[in-house]
Amino acid sequence: xxxxxxxxxxxxxxxxxxxxxxxxxxxxxxxxxxxxxxxxxxxxxxxxxxxxxxxxxxxxxxxxxxxxxxxxxxxxxxxxxxxxxxxxxxxxxxxxxxxxxxxxxxxxxxxxxxxxxxxxxxxxxxxxxxxxxxxxxxxxxxxxxxxxxxxxxxxxxxxxxxxxxxxxxxxxxxxxxxxxxxxxxxxxxxxxxxxxxxxxxxxxxxxxxxxxxxxxxxxxxxxxxxxxxxxxxxxxxxxxxxxxxxxxxxxxxxxxxxxxxxxxxxxxxxxxxxxxxxxxxxxxxxxxxxxxxxxxxxxxxxxxxx
Length: 306
Prior knowledge:
By secondary structure, this protein is an alpha/beta fold. The protein has helices at 2-7, 12-19, 23-35, 56-60, 64-75, 90-97, 112-117, 142-148, 174-186, 224-232; strands at residues 9-11, 39-42, 45-48, 83-86, 106-109, 124-127, 131-133, 138-140, 155-159, 162-164, 168-171, 189-193, 205-206, 215-217, 236-240, 246-247, 282-285. It has 10 helices and 17 strands. Helix 2 (12-19) packs across helix 3 (23-35).
C-alpha cells in the first residue's frame, strides 16, 4: 500500500521485482486489498481507489455479524472490577453494550460514544481529551497521548484495519496508529480484535509488533499458516466454537496445576496463569497453556519480560 499511495498505480511484475516475492503472492495480496475496497484491480496491476470512508458510521455498516461475534467473545474475557482500555472502533462499541452487566469497571476511552455507553452508575470512566475527530467521534493527538502517559496497568482491547505477519497489526491513519502504540506500551495485557477480512491485508501504518500482542479474538478459525504463526509468537487465538477448547502449541510433559505458571515459559505483558477458563462459546488456540488475563503483576506491553 505504501508504494501504491506514492505512485497511484502499480503492476504485478513491478511489485514482484521490487519486493522480491512471487507474482502469485503479489496477485493474492492485491486481491485481498481490493476485497476491502482499498484499491482497484486493473489488467496487470492495480490503481488506488477513491478515498475509503473510515468514518464511524461507515465502518459500523461493514462486517456487522462478524463484529458481534468478536465483541461477545472479547466481552467474556472481562471480569468485575477490571481496568480496561477500549479503542474508538465499532467492534469495541459493540463490546461496550455487553459489558453493562459487569460491576465496578474502570474504563479508559478516547471515544465520545463509548463514554456515553458507560454512563450508568457503578463504572468509572476516564475520557482521554485531545483533538476531536467528528467523523470518527474520537480524540487523538499530543494531548490525548500526554493523558495516556499517566496511566498504567489496564487490559487494552484494540482493533486494526489490517494484519500482516511481517508488518504486524496496522491502521489506516497515522494518528490512530501512534495512539494505540502508546496504549499497548502501557498496558499489562493487549487483546487484538480483528475479523477474517483483515488477515494478510495490511494497512498503511503499523500499530505495534506481534511480540506485544497477548491474544487475538476473531470470527473464524484462521488457516494453519496463521495458526502456526500465532503459536510461534505466543499469541493466544480465540475464535467461535461449540465448546471452549485449549490447543497448546507444543506437547508439555505435564499439565500445570490451575493458578500456576509454567516456569519454562516467558509470559508477555503480564504473567498469565494456566487456567481452564475460556471465552464463552469460543475456542482458544494458545501459544502454550491457556493463559489468564487477570494474573497478578505485570509488565508494559511494549516489551517481553526476560
